[in-house]
Amino acid sequence: MPKVYILREACKGVVDCDICRFVCPKDVLGKSDMLNRKGYFPPEVVDEDACTQCGNCMVYCPDMAIVVEMRKAKKAAR
Amino acid sequence: MSSVEHPLRKYLRPSVEATTFCPGCGDGTVLTSILQAIDELGMTMDDFVFVSGIGCAAWIISPNFNADVLHTTHGRPIAFATGIKLNLPEKKVMVVSGDGDLTAIGGNHLIHAARRNIEMVVICANNGIYGMTGGQVAPTTPREARTITTPYGSLENTFDISRMVQASGASFVARWTTYQPRQLTKSIKKAIQKKGFAFIEVISQCPVQFGAKTGAGSAVEMLEMYRKSSISVKKAVEMSPQEIEDKIVTGEFIDTAKPELCEEIARLKERIRGEG
Ligand SMILES: Cc1ncc(C[n+]2csc(CCOP(=O)(O)OP(=O)(O)O)c2C)c(N)n1
Ligand code: SF4
Ligand SMILES: [Mg+2]
């Protein structure tokens, strides 16, 4: 699995929501040019290498539309 | 179709494809924070009975959570929850609803449940407006905000819900914004484990009925505003009332132990039986 996975059909779009791109500190996400079935433009991963697996996009997403393979909880950080 | 599934998806009903919320609504972040807390505590949906009132925020748990969920009448979820808790004291009862539902039409239920200190978790998604009905002014609307029913700006003072619930006698009170989902999850975990009335206010963005009409802006603009204007309880006590006027004071206001109603009733029953 990639580090960041977009569940495209669960997303309500970066045009009105865009919370994932706002909370990503590394600009990993861009906007997809392809509508999903509900008619929204989901984000897409444009710079996976930059992803630190902090999990912000997954934690803030109001629609459970992003899954991040979280950094292995080394010291059970939280 | 993808095979990757969100780790919290297992708590939703299989029939749920999407929430009813508008794009960017903070209520979705409240939803995931609640599920994250339940997941981290290692509890199951069978441990809970969820209760909601009427409004957008009432749709956080209903019909999404794959659990016993009661979607009640406007303002009354705490009254229903009280009945449930008294009859099923072994269940965790959680009420999730909006600011209008819990503090306007349902304000008295909130005050008196806190006063009785009955064990339950009440989570109030406070978007400062009546979202579902089109953006009417609420007791939580900031002074001077222009809403569809206050086109020249609201003349009324704003409820400080957390302070009111604390003054009414709750055991646990916290306030976070949707910009602080990790802190929110932590407080929800504490609230679930609390023997007593536990209340969490979540300042949540409604970009459609609040943001667009008052000028607060989009979901992202509102989150940025939350980020900039939030200050911690600890910092707030050192500031003057004027200094904190435009701030959102966040954190845990009270976390204390005191007699809980269900336990008091059980003790009373035992005492009377002993006497008889
Ligand atoms: C007895 C009654 N009065 C009024 C209404 C109309 N009504 C439905 S939702 C709502 C306001 C809900 O506001 P809030 O609790 O803040 O929820 P939000 O939609 O903002 O999340 C009102 C007044 C109703 N359904 N029932
Ligand atoms: S009207 Fe506001 S509170 Fe209701 S779902 Fe839309 S954004 Fe959320
Ligand atoms: Mg509201």
Key terms:
heterodimer, A: alpha+beta, Alpha-Beta Plaits, two-stranded antiparallel sheet, B: 276 residues, alpha/beta, Rossmann fold, eight-stranded mixed sheet, binds thiamine diphosphate, binds iron/sulfur cluster, binds magnesium ion
Task: Summarize the model shown.
The complex is a heterodimer of chains A (78) and B (276). Chain A has one domain (3-69): Alpha-Beta Plaits.
How are the elements arranged and paired?
The complex is a heterodimer of chains A (about 80) and B (about 280).
Chain A: E1 4-6, H1 19-23, E2 29-31, E3 43-45, H2 56-60, E4 66-68
Antiparallel strand pairs in A: 1-4, 2-3
Chain B: H1 27-40, E1 48-52, E2 68-71, H2 77-87, E3 92-98, H3 99-105, H4 107-116, E4 120-126, H5 161-168, E5 172-177, H6 181-193, E6 197-203, H7 207-214, H8 219-229, E7 230-232, H9 233-236, E8 248-255, H10 261-275
Parallel strand pairs in B: 1-2, 1-3, 3-4, 4-6, 5-6, 7-8
Antiparallel strand pairs in B: 5-8
Helix pairs in contact in B: 1-6, 3-4, 4-5
Bound molecules: thiamine diphosphate, iron/sulfur cluster and magnesium ion.
What does this structure look like?
Chain A is α+β, with helices and mostly antiparallel strands and 78 residues long. Chain A contains 2 helices and 4 strands. The mean pLDDT of chain A is 92. Chain B starts with 26 loop residues before the first helix and ends with a helix. Chain B has a single domain (19-275), classed as 3-Layer(aba) Sandwich (Rossmann fold), CATH 3.40.50.970. Chain B has 276 residues and is an alpha/beta fold. Chain B has helices spanning 27-40, 77-87, 99-105, 107-116, 161-168, 181-193, 207-214, 219-229, 233-236, 261-275; strands at residues 48-52, 68-71, 92-98, 120-126, 172-177, 197-203, 230-232, 248-255. At the A-B interface, helix 1 of A face helix 1 and helix 8 of B. Residues 21-22, 25, 27, 56, 127, 131-132, 206-209 of chain B line the site of iron/sulfur cluster.
